[in-house]
Amino acid sequence: MAARLHPGIEVRPPLSRIPSKSYAHVKRAFDIVFSALGLVALSPVLAACAVAVKATSQGPVLFKQKRWGRAGSRFECWKFRTMLVETPPDMPAQDFADKAAFMTPVGNFLRRWSLDELPQLANILKGDMSIIGPRPVIIRERRLIDLRIPLNAEAVRPGLTGWAQVNGRNLVSDEEKAFLDGEYVANMSLAFDARVFFRTISVVFSRRGVNREAR
Known about the structure:
Blueprint: H1 2-5, H2 21-41, H3 43-56, E1 62-68, E2 74-80, H4 107-112, H5 120-126, E3 130-132, H6 142-148, E4 159-161, H7 174-186, H8 190-206
Parallel strand pairs: 3-4
Antiparallel strand pairs: 1-2
Helix pairs in contact: 2-5, 6-7
């Protein structure tokens, strides 16, 4: 599976391994510093997104949803709302027969550029998430959680972006996504986190893998 998902890239396969405490402390320090800086530096963008959401559809600016966190915990994940308030809750977007019918006027734009994810910088600052890690899974997606648990992917904080997101994002199957998430945990290091971060920038600007983005 590793050879098919990313041929030519050397990574360790998923293993039952928990990162060292020193790495975890340094990673958390980076998360605090960069999420705080991000919230300040991107405050004009955050304000513009909030105004756009509020001005074009009725309802709250933020969409709040319970997600799986580290070690089976649950937390409230924040996003800019991209769908109408009457949209069925806790349903992945790929399950809608006509997703466009529920999308707000600015929803597609926010998703296309991943701007809807920016409020999760506050989740990172709180300690619910990390900048890099397996993406937080919707509570109803129990099958993906069950696939990830044996690969140790639930032992770390979920991330704003992750290895699965830069290797197909939501175009890979649940089995492939779980494998990639486990692969990330097996290879966790500051260098690997930097690699994922810079590849994320490329993926966002190329807009690859956004057509099945979860709600």
